[in-house]
Model the fold of this input.
Amino acid sequence: MDNSVDPKPGKSAPQSPPEPGRSRVNPFLQYSGLGLQMLVTIGLGVWLGSWLDHQQDNRTPIWTLLLALLSIAASIYLLIRGLPKQP
Done:
């Protein structure tokens, strides 16, 4: 006689906890989150630059250009920091 308990149909067997330092996040969700973070960072930089140019009545959108480039650099830095470490 087998006394082991079978999981109920439709339910998966209990899974072991993840190793310390390892995340069980779906890679698609992780990378789409990084893309969204880049989009928001660059968008805020461009919006702030545009607002500053409007406030100062600049003919040349110097703040928009400067903050757009800074936000692109910042988003690339955050992207690289957010990538998983390869063993």
Q: What stands out?
A: The mean pLDDT is 82. The two ends are 45 Å apart (CA to CA).
